[in-house]
């Protein structure tokens, strides 16, 4: 009995030693995944918010009648700069920082953790769509409940301006949120208006995003792993950074090409001054199509695609480099 007890003590010490020498507990690993996602979200807002402001204004104003408020994205941008200055491009950024940082932290963290669970004991370096798609869709569905109210506040702040007399004016995001809750409530007719559109956009969009990211990342790593120039540590960091930029940019572009009409519907629903406006994204898109044609369903396409590549390239690059810095192993 004494020998067995001694063996158990030695075994426990060895296990603790193994953890100390580099093996992370599941809780620590999960926390690091969420931290890397948080960093990616902050980087996304800094890079992409001005493009997003232009996109939201085009979606809110150019879908009402056949007479367009703005000729194109450049015209919209110039009007914002002339009437409001650079600050006008960053309207709603504070709520966007909160929403995007938390959303990105949860999105990347939940996706990584769910993918690990679905993969189980399968040892396969090739991307498995049967694992990636449900993991990404699940993560997207969960974060939509955070995104919906924060994006409602962001969009209502963004559509304001000297060209937007029909919209209610708010002094800041907090006032916007409090007024919305007080006047419209917390449910789907209030701060969670546009919830179905957000849910569909994030579920479908993130399935497309992570599938594109994982497939292109695997392909590029496979092609570049045979390159002699990628042998040194410095070269490997440069290659990984380059791959992160390319895969992030392509994944972001694929995301928005897949779900932009749902985003248009969400913006129109969330910014409509009419409290009885339809909350159904398909009905909203049908109404937009009848008013202004197919182009209305893709309002804001230019600034969206202009933003998609750099913002998501920075997000993925930040996510991967932060993960590497924190000691998270990426296969």
From TrEMBL:
May I have one GO cellular component term?
Answer: mitochondrial inner membrane
* Listed InterPro entries: MCP_dom_sf, MCP_transmembrane, Mitochondrial_Carrier
Main subcellular localisation: mitochondrion
| Xref: PROSITE patterns | SOLCAR (PS50920)
What is the membrane topology listed in the Swiss-Prot or TrEMBL record? Multi-pass membrane protein
Q: Does the keyword Amino-acid biosynthesis apply?
A: no
Question: Does the UniProt entry include the keyword Transmembrane helix?
Answer: yes
Q: Where in the cell is it found?
A: Mitochondrion inner membrane
What's an example Gene Ontology biological process for this entry? mitochondrial L-ornithine transmembrane transport
| Superkingdom classification of source | Eukaryota
Q: Which GO terms describe its molecular function?
A: L-ornithine transmembrane transporter activity
Q: Could you tell me the keywords of this UniProt record?
A: Membrane, Mitochondrion, Mitochondrion inner membrane, Repeat, Transmembrane, Transmembrane helix, Transport
The UniProt transmembrane annotation reads: none
Q: Into which family does the record put it?
A: Belongs to the mitochondrial carrier (TC 2.A.29) family.
Name the PANTHER family for this protein: MITOCHONDRIAL ARGININE TRANSPORTER BAC1, MITOCHONDRIAL BASIC AMINO ACIDS TRANSPORTER-RELATED
Q: What is this protein called?
A: Mitochondrial carrier protein
**Lineage of the species this protein comes from:** Eukaryota, Viridiplantae, Streptophyta, Embryophyta, Tracheophyta
């Amino acid at each position: 009995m004494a020998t067995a007890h001694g063996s158990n003590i030695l075994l426990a010490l060895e296990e603790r030693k193994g953890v100390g020498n580099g093996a992370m507990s599941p809780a620590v690993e999960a926390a690091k995944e969420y931290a890397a996602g948080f960093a990616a979200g902050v980087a996304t807002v800094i890079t992409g918010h001005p493009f997003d402001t232009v996109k939201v204004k085009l979606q809110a104003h150019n879908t009402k009648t056949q007479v367009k408020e703005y000729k194109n994205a450049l015209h919209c941008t110039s009007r914002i700069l002339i009437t409001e200055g650079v600050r006008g491009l960053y309207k709603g950024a504070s709520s966007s920082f909160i929403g995007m940082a938390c959303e990105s932290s949860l999105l990347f963290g939940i996706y990584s953790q769910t993918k690990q669970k679905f993969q189980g004991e399968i040892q396969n370096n090739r991307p498995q769509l049967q694992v990636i798609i449900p993991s990404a869709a699940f993560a997207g569905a969960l974060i939509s409940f955070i995104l919906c109210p924060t994006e409602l506040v962001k969009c209502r702040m963004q559509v304001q301006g000297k060209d937007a007399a029909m919209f209610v004016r708010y002094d800041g995001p907090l006032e916007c949120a409090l007024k919305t809750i007080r006047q419209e409530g917390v449910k789907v007719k209030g701060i969670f208006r546009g919830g179905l559109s957000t849910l569909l956009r994030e579920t479908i969009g993130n399935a497309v995003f992570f599938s594109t990211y994982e497939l292109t990342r695997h392909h590029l790593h496979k092609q570049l792993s045979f390159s002699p120039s990628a042998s040194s540590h410095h070269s490997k960091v440069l290659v990984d950074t380059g791959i992160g930029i390319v895969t992030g940019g392509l994944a972001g572009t694929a995301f928005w090409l897949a779900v932009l009409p749902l985003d248009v519907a969400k913006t129109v629903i969330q910014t409509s001054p009419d409290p009885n406006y339809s909350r159904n994204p398909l009905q909203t898109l049908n109404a937009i199509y009848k008013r202004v044609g197919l182009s209305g369903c893709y309002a804001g396409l230019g600034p969206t695609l202009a933003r998609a590549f750099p913002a998501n390239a920075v997000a993925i690059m930040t996510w991967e480099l932060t993960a590497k810095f924190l000691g998270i192993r990426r296969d």
